[in-house]
Amino acid sequence: MFEEFYGFSERPFQLTPDPAFYFESLTHKKALSYLGYGLNQGEGFVVITGEVGSGKSTLVAHLKEKLEEDRMTVGEVVTSALDGDEMVHVAARSFGLDVAGQDKAGALAAIEAFLHEEAREGRRVLLIVDESQNLSIGALEELRMLSNFQLGAHPLLQTLLLGQPEFRQLIAKSDELEQLRQRIIAAHHLEPMQPGEVEPYIRHRLDHVGWDGNPELDRGLFNPIHKATGGIPRKINQVMTRLLLLGAVEEQSVLEPDLLEAVLIEMHHEASDHPAEQETRPRPERDNLPAAHAVAQARTREDRSEGSRGTASDSGLAEAQIAAIEQAFSDRDRAMKELRRDMEALRPSAAYRPGDDVRERLAAIDARLDQQEQSLRQVMASLIEILETSGRREAA
């Protein structure tokens, strides 16, 4: 894809959280300060909230890299709608404890024994709970009860809660969570990046993959990108992935505002289309493309592997995507060869002035190239949709 065209070592704007790409915006710097303060206290709860895609998971991954493994044991939970008993068992499993078949009391006893053992070994224990907005009041209360475990006067467990904005509102307003509120020692809400942070963010990620200035970034890109994405890092990643792919398809060494505008229009149309209509609406030009057939096969395989995505299915999806890309570029090359052949046939002599028939043939060539370009864009859009969907599932 565009990585090879521009000489990148990997995809610079992947959707999956990766601490290697951590960018310290103003709001992330503040969040890291609150996290550092909270962890130094060694007790209670630290709460980090933010919009979907604001960088919570990347922030925590970056934090984990800074923790000393011999002094801190970390358990991680990504929640669905758990009740109290389920929360206790999931927390126990996050620390590697085998509590299968045990009731809540047995799971709690296993957690307490584990915490005491870690304390005797000189290690603190941190439980990270992501997507906390999905938790029931009962599950949150069980987390609060876990924070009661102590060895003498020393607390044995600290909890980091990550959630979307509604979780922040739940904690602030729920009468049932008053005791948990009193144990929150640090909290921060991740804000979107400021307009002036978009360019450094994009350049930071490009530099990480070996960017040497190709493609060149027009200065007119950054304000429109901030406006279109609201400064949300994951949305910026989506736009930049599309922009780089379009730049590679059109063999551009400079990414300019007109390319960005085409990307944003295309993404807006995709977002406004109803999924059901997309499945049933006839698309004769796209459906007749060999590359589109490969895309359809890839989508079918992806849907069939929804419940159990393994190495074999991932490999099949990747092969279909590569085949679709190769076919799309092959179609484009064939069209260019036809154009050259037709233009050679129409090359006028010095004494010849083209008439209406020549102009009509030239217009037909232009129309055919426009149709080919549109078909190629449709194939590329479908491929990106598959990749982004896969990326979101992996991130989840």
Describe the structure.
A 5-stranded parallel β-sheet has the order 2-3-6-1-7, sandwiched between helices. The chain has helices at residues 2-6, 26-41, 56-66, 84-94, 104-120, 137-146, 165-173, 178-181, 195-208, 222-229, 233-249, 257-272, 275-280, 284-287, 290-304, 311-345, 356-395; strands at residues 45-50, 72-78, 124-130, 150-151, 154-155, 158-163, 184-190, 216-217, 254-255. The radius of gyration is 27 Å and the shape is elongated. α11 (233-249) runs antiparallel to α17 (356-395). The two termini are 24 Å apart. The protein contains 17 helices and 9 strands. The chain has 396 residues and is α/β, with parallel strands linked by helices. β4 and β5 (154-155) form a beta hairpin.
Q: Helix coverage percent of residues?
A: 55-70%
Termini separation comes to 24 Å
Strand ordering within the main sheet: 2-3-6-1-7
Order of helices and strands: HHEHEHHEHEEEHHEHEHHEHHHHHH
What is the CA-based Rg, rounded? Answer: 27 Å
Assign the CATH topology of the largest domain: Rossmann fold
Q: What is the CATH architecture descriptor of the largest domain?
A: 3-Layer(aba) Sandwich
> CATH first level of the largest domain: which class?
Alpha Beta
**What is the average per-residue confidence, as pLDDT, rounded to a whole number?**
80
Q: Please state the overall shape, judged from the principal axes of the Cα atoms.
A: elongated
> How many distinct folded domains?
2
Number of strands: 9
**SS-based class:** alpha/beta
- Strand proportion: 5-15%
The biggest sheet, with number of strands, parallel, antiparallel or mixed sense and barrel status, is: 5 strands, parallel
- Low-pLDDT regions: 276-317, 392-396
What is the count of DSSP helices, taking H or I runs of 4+ residues?
17
CATH superfamily of the largest domain: P-loop containing nucleotide triphosphate hydrolases
Protein name: XrtA-associated ATPase
Organism: Qipengyuania spongiae
Pfam family, one: AAA_22
InterPro entries: AAA+_ATPase, AAA_22, ExeA_AAA_ATPase_DNA-bind, P-loop_NTPase, XrtA-assoc_ATPase-like
